[in-house]
Amino acid sequence: MQEYKTVEKEASDFFIEKKSKFIGYAKPVKTQEEAVEFISEIKSKHWDATHNVYAYVLRENNIQRYSDDGEPSGTAGVPVLDVMLKESLVDVCVVATRYFGGTLLGAGGLVRAYSHMSKISLEAAGIITMAQCSVMSAEVDYSFYDRLNILLSDFSAVILNTSFSDKVCVEFSVKENIVDLLNAKLIDVSNGKYISKFLRNEFSKTI
């Protein structure tokens, strides 16, 4: 079963090191076009910055790219990329903006600063695990709704949508390899009254 780690949303964070301000931006991206567009967007936003360093990793063709954007070779883009690789992240782009504060950090200081910038921006974006999942739906009576929620939680299913009418219809994703186990348990605890229906396969966030 395929799984991979990425970030959940676009986010940013910053810190100041010896009067230099570092601002990190992280965003989930699927293609090089999306990554380049994000990098251009941040560069336009911080056109007056001293440096706009970036790195991105894509599942597609195992692409890895980075740029020091004027910082000494190997002190900026590589540390940003290394943090992603150590976390085994893919489909993510990080842009690290620096406003120089007048004090040189030295090669070691730059590596530490850009590594830290990458780390806190990725944490702000929320590191998640995506897995090949089956999206299912279950329609139950209101009296069974709480029991269904407990069951879904027990199987680490992620609820995607819930609609309420004469019955409750819950759409959820669960790892492919435990769909049969979940359905068997649902049939058991409902005395054969309920079973979930398959809708589609997709990569979904797992708990």
Walk me through what this model shows:
This protein has 207 residues and is an alpha+beta fold. The protein folds into two domains: 3-125, Impact, N-terminal domain (Ribosomal Protein S5, domain 2, 2-Layer Sandwich); 129-206, Alpha-Beta Plaits, CATH 3.30.70. It contains five helices and ten strands; from the N terminus they run E-E-E-H-E-E-H-E-H-E-H-E-E-H-E. The protein has helices at residues 32-45, 77-86, 106-125, 142-154, 179-189; strands spanning 3-7, 11-17, 20-28, 51-58, 63-67, 92-99, 127-140, 158-164, 168-175, 197-206. The strands form two sheets. Strands 1, 7, 8, 9 and 10 form a five-stranded antiparallel β-sheet that branches. A five-stranded antiparallel β-sheet has the order 2-3-6-4-5, with helices on both faces. A hairpin with a 3-residue loop joins strand 8 (158-164) and strand 9. The chain is elongated and about 70 Å long.
List the helices and strands and how they pair.
Layout: E1 3-7, E2 11-17, E3 20-28, H1 32-45, E4 51-58, E5 63-67, H2 77-86, E6 92-99, H3 106-125, E7 127-140, H4 142-154, E8 158-164, E9 168-175, H5 179-189, E10 197-206
Antiparallel strand pairs: 1-7, 2-3, 3-6, 4-5, 4-6, 7-9, 7-10, 8-9
Helix pairs in contact: 2-3
